[in-house]
Structures are given as structure tokens and as C-alpha cells.
Amino acid sequence: MLKKIALEKLGDLVSALMEKGPLYAPVKGEKAVDFQEITNPADVILDFYNTAMSPKFAFFPQSEDLIRYRLGKEATESEAVSLDAKPSVILGVRPCDAKSFEIMDRHFLGAGIIDPYWNDKREKTTIIGYAFDPSTAADPADFYNTLGISASDTAGSDIFMIRTDKHLLFKGITEKGDRLLKELSVLEAGSKTDEKTFEDKAKKGGEVKTRFMEIQDKAVAGKLVQVFNNKEFWEKATAACISCGACTFVCPTCYCFDISDETLFRDGVRKRFWDACMFTDFTLEASGHNPRPRIFQRYRQKVCHKYSYHVDKYGCISCVGCGRCTRSCPVNIDIYSIIESASKL
Amino acid sequence: MDFEPKILGIACNWCTYTGADLAGTTRLKYPQNVRTVRVMCSSRINPSFIIRAFQLGADGVLVGGCHPGDCHYGTGNLYARRKLAVTKKILEFAGMEPKRFRVEWISASEGKKYAEVVEEFTNDVKALGPQTKFKIRKD
Amino acid sequence: MTAMKKIEENLRKEAKRLLEGGEVSVVLAYGRGYDENHPMPFAARTVEDVDSLVFNEYCTFNLARYLPKYPPKTKIAVAVKAADSRAVVQLIQEEKVRREDLVILGIPVTGMKDQKTGEVIDNKTTCNMANPVLYDILLGDEIHGFKGGSPYDVLAELEGMDHDARMAFWKKEFEKCIRCFACRKACPMCYCDPCFMDASRPRWADKSPTPDGHLMYHLTRFYHLAGRCIDCGECSRACPVDIPLYLFHKKLAKECEDMFQQAAGMKIEDKPAMVNYGNQDSDEMLK
Hints:
The complex is a heterotrimer.
Chain A: E1 2-6, H1 10-20, E2 23-28, E3 33-37, E4 63-71, E5 76-80, E6 88-93, H2 95-108, H3 116-124, E7 125-130, E8 159-163, E9 167-172, H4 175-183, E10 188-189, H5 192-205, H6 217-227, H7 231-237, H8 246-250, E11 257-264, E12 267-274, H9 295-314, H10 324-328, H11 335-344
Parallel strand pairs in A: 2-6, 6-7, 7-8
Antiparallel strand pairs in A: 1-9, 1-10, 2-3, 4-5, 4-12, 8-9, 11-12
Helix pairs in contact in A: 6-9, 7-9
Chain B: E1 7-12, H1 16-25, E2 34-39, H2 47-55, E3 60-65, H3 76-94, E4 101-105, H4 111-128
Parallel strand pairs in B: 1-2, 1-3, 3-4
Chain C: H1 3-20, E1 26-35, E2 38-44, E3 76-80, H2 82-93, E4 102-106, E5 137-138, H3 156-160, H4 163-175, H5 182-186, H6 211-225, H7 234-238, H8 245-260
Parallel strand pairs in C: 1-3, 3-4, 4-5
Antiparallel strand pairs in C: 1-2
């Protein structure tokens, strides 16, 4: 199903979506653009390259309450936080990020245990993908082509949006997407010419070139196991790393979390929140022993997890080449270059 | 009902805490809003204690030590003066009302001064009302 | 040849000489990143590594940050710009590195550019000095007559606000924090292991990212850097969510200079202000 709306009517569409439930869309902050829950339709912008933070927070918030409790003199009362996600929409997800949700699904839903927190929000959310503008060159840090994703890939989106000179075109990709498109009366039906334009634009998106190298999941997974013990290589590649968590927190496919009980006087909450394998205390054991005390060991873990262990366990690389880790790295460490040089060893 | 502020007092063992004792034994009257914690020296005070106290609901923090030059350990309060001065600047620049944090040098013989400082500080904090800027709110 | 190119050439020449002669075992400088505008900190250990050294206006990193992690007595050559040299001086004062183990390659430079925005880095976010305060070898010509304005000019707006407005300002900024700790990790003066934020007893702030924990983390970090921050601006450049941490650091640097008559990292003989006291100290500072 193809629908369209004039560019200047974006506000109407946003208002219509807000009526359906919480809407997350790109908003311009002081410097960077980021997804935010929209309260004022005029805040939504579509002129952006990509957001600083990934949209994973919509299903996997940085901090999430699991249990609330009260410590009593004799007994502790506790209550699980109920799952009550409202049907929501994320508007303007770039193709690489849309793909990341599918990769995360394998971990949160496909590993034999279904994560109820992820599942609840995932099921109730409709994702409106948004093609990269084919007339803009890809950011030098991006490498989504390498992971087999194009600038106008529809995989992972429920609805896919493409901008033309005067219109926004919407194509339903999944049933959930079609259903939402039908309900939105502000949209006009697309004509045959619009369909042609959509196809043309989508094709053009395929021509956007990011950094590219030939990689095969299995081969790179095997290679990394091979170079695992090459201490010299890892130390050199990660010599600049300062072991902060910026790369993992902006990453759309990093899913590690920590759980902690936080009590204030007698009331407390058991929470789960993002953790980063780059932190010194990530693997610190109660005995005081730390299996990964060195920075290169932690960085190696990150690379091998994404490009090797994840392939073995879930059958795909856990990276979409969005370039966020490289862009946000305070010292410009580039995972692409590391994979490239590891493959050449 | 009148607002009765909760004030954290941190007093050094050798001077201010003894001064407070003296105020008590000489039966001076002063407000009961200060909950005093004794430390061995005013330089033992970690500025995070003060931030934490405000977070846990203190309306004011009063720190007491020996007069400069009279420190039981020689120079402890000279270091403390610099530390607490910076703490005060931090609180102020973060947006806390400066009157909620006060440092006074009170010797063991100054029971009267202790009572006066407590009275004055309590009135100041009372006038400012409850502290909500740092206080942890439970949703 | 531009000044930057000349510095790059001298950097390579000196690095080669120092490594060849065995004077140092590592040269901390800048290397190629994934493109021209994104160089990386680079540790050259062999003569072959020297070819990878670069210098351009995007080499903003403060390499003093890497010094404390080397085992004691390692001979290190370190390339420093003005603010970075202050960090080295401060580290020497704090006995984290020894002067005799260092060969300081000074870089006199102005007009460095922010990698994210491409804007020139000036007195708004850094101390904006042109010449290193301490060096063994100068890699470029000393800069004379550079006037960049006071590093504390930028504080006027915040200082003019009332307390409530300032609290609102910082609350809004700290709310952006994602607790990635890039600020403390990029900071040359944050070398504590473990950091108070990683301690579990006592747990100073929530482990999860709560606004109250952010407040505790940042205020305490500001305190820990009071009188030590050399105003290089690395924390703010490292921040992926652009919190203007430099504002608070600048304010405390200014206050400490006023109160203790000593700026951080200027003289090797100074004692760090916060582990010292002076005869001129008075109770005025507590007012």
C-alpha cells in the first residue's frame, strides 16, 4: 500500500500519530538530533543525517524498573512492575537502525527465553523507516553497505518513508504497517506515478556508497577466533582506547545490562540499565578478581562479540554499520578499520 | 504548621563537639533542629557527605571545627578550610542557596557561640523554606 | 610550508631521533585515524611507527591522559600543546609521573578545530593559551602577541543568573547524561582507580542512571578537579551528548585562582592547591 502527504502537512501527520499513542521522532537539540517523545508537532524534523543516540531505547530503555519493594521490619513487600506499554510509533528510523531491531530480536526473543520487557514494547510499536537522502554523501564513518544494508533498505521497518521534493511517500511493509497506514486519514492514496517515484528513489538509495569491504559472517567469525591470541595486534589497535562506554551506549545493537537494587530509606526498586563491556568493573567479580583487567582485552571482547560470538550463537553479525561508535568515540577508534586489519592478518 | 528545618551538623571531636557539650551542660537554650555527627577532624569531611546530606533531605548543613591554628592535629582545619570553601562555591554555582551551608570555628570553651550559631543558622534556613533542589524525589 | 606541516615534520624528526637513540621507549603523539579530520592518539614505539605520526588542526587530544598508565621509570616522549603541558606539570606536581622520565615535545599552536563541528576551539571552552608552559624541545615557532581573551569570559552569563535559574540550567544539562564516563576517562587528571563512582561501599550514587546520581557524580567530579583542572576542554569534547562541563570546571578554576593565588599546572615547584594551605588563607573564602 502506498500513501503520501505534502511536505508542509507533516505537522498534521505528526498530530494524527500522536493521537494513536506516544510518538518518538527526531528532534533538534542544541547540537545533535535525537529521538524524543513528541509533545509539540512542530518539533519534529526530517532534515537530519542520523541521530546521536540509537532508537534502541524505545524497546530497551537505558533504565527500566523491574520490581518495587518496601523493606519491612519482618517481611519485605514487593511487587513486579506491570507491563503496560502503550501502542506507539517511532518515526524516521534510518534503514541501518531498523535492521538493528531484527538483530536484537534474536537475542531478546529468539534465544529460548522471551524477554517480556522487550517483547511488550516491541509488539506494540510501529516503526516508520526513513531512507537516507540519496543526494547526500554518506558520512565517512558509516559502513552499513558492508553489512549488506542500503540507504533505502526497507527491512525492519513496518512502514517505509521516502521524501521527494514535495511529498513524503509511505509504503506499508508489514501487516502492522498497512494497518496503521489505513487508519491515518490525513494521508492521500498514492498514484501509479507515486509508486514509480518510490521505486526510483529506492533504487537511487541503493547507489549511495558507504565504506565497503567484502565480509562473510562465517569467515570473519573464524578469523577473529584465529587472531584472538594475537596480543600485539589487539594492543596496537586499541592503544588509544580510554575505556569509556560511549561506543556501546550509542550502539543500536549493544544489549548488555546490569541489574541493581536501589533503596532509599526503606523503599527500593530493582532496575535494569545499560552496562558497557568497556568498563573496568563490567567483569569485576566479588572476589576482586577481574578476568579482563586490560583495555585491549575489553575492546577485543567487544569486537569478537559482535563479529564472532554473535555469528556462532545467533547466525548474524551484531553490527549494522551505522557509524555511531566511530563518530562518538572521544579518540576516533574505528571498528571498521579494526575488522579490516584483522581480516588481513 | 511552622516549618522546622532538618539540619545536619558535622562537628569536630576536639572543639565544636565539646563546645556543643558545654552549651548543653550550661543549659543554654538553642533550637533542636541540628542533628550532629561527630568526626575526628573537620578535614575528615568529604564534600560528598554534604551533597549527599542535601540529597537525603537536609535543609541545611552546618560544619564546625577548631579555630585555625588550634587544630588538635596541627593543620587539619587549614586543609578543611580550602576544601569547604570549594564545596561552598560548587553548591552555589550548582544553584543551591549559599545560606544553606555554613562553616564555623567553635572552640571547646565557646558553648555560647555554639548556641548562637545554631540559632542564627536555624533561623536562616527556616526563612529559606524546605530544600528541594538536591532532594531525591520518589516518583 | 604551513606551521602545522612544519610541526608535523619536526615531530617525526624528533620522534625518530629519540627512538633511534634509545632515549625514550615510546613517543606519545598523534596518528592517522579513519580520515584526515579524525586523527587518533598514537604511541610510536619503533622507528617504523614514526611514519604514521601526523599533526593537523584536528589533533585536539590531550595526551597527558595516557602518561600515568605507563609503568614507573618508562622513558616517554610526549607531544603537548599549551593546555596539555599544564596537565603534564600538574601530573608531575602530583607525583604521577617523574620529570626525569619525560621528554616534552612542545607544540605552540592556536586555531585548533573541534572534530565534531569544525569550529575553532577558543577561550570559550579551553584555557586558550598558545605556548606550552614546560617543554624540552619546541616543535614550532613560539607564538608572540596572541590575544585570545580571558578563559573566564564565558562564565558571565551563568554567574549573572539567580540560583534557581542556575539550578534549572544544570538540571537540564545533567539530565542528558548517559553515564558513559567519557568525561572522566578523557580527563588527564582523572586517574583514580577505582573512581569513587565505581566503589560499591559506600555507594555514593545510584548505579543506574538517575538524575540524582548524575548530580552526585558531576558535582563530586568537579570538586575532585578543583584547583587541578587545567582547562583543556577534553571532557566536553569527549561527551557524546554535549554537556558543557567546561563551564563548571572554569568557574572552579577561576575561584581557586582567586582564593589560593595559584593556577593549576603552571609551575612544576607548586604544591597542588587542595593538598596545601597558605598563610594568606582567610575565612573570607568561606563567606
